[in-house]
Design brief:
Blueprint (H helix, E strand, L loop, with lengths): L1 H13 L5 E5 L3 E3 L2 E10 L5 E11 L5 E10 L13 E9 L10 E11 L3 E2 L2 H4 E5 L4 E4 L1
Length: 141
Amino acid sequence: MKLFSFAVGLFCALSAHAQLAVAVSPPKVVGQKAVVQLAMKNNLAAKVESARAAIFLLDNQGTMVGQATRWVIGGTKNRPAVEPGKEATYNFVVQAAKPFATTNLTVKVSFSSVTLEGNNQLDVQKNVTIFYGRAGTRSHD
């Protein structure tokens, strides 16, 4: 976990333009469930009150084999707002109807809504940067 937090910090430092930096871990597959950890760092001057993300799991042919949408920041006591300069993690659990045919899955994450304090909406296309896996592959949402 400390290594993962260090990686998030490194990614944030390398992408100065990122306002909300999100590191996506490779999925851990067990039977009909896949768990993907999102580590998010708020590089804004304002508190992130809420954020909604969708996750898509793809097999090695690019076929979607699972998806889920959740509030990853805000909404409950267990997911409080994220203060400026602070980090939050969220474990996305994707449940499939039957066991995954492969454990070699690719993850795609997309943010649809990020609300800052004062009910201000963040432009996710410009202000959310997503890093995939250990190699630090970067993608703008």
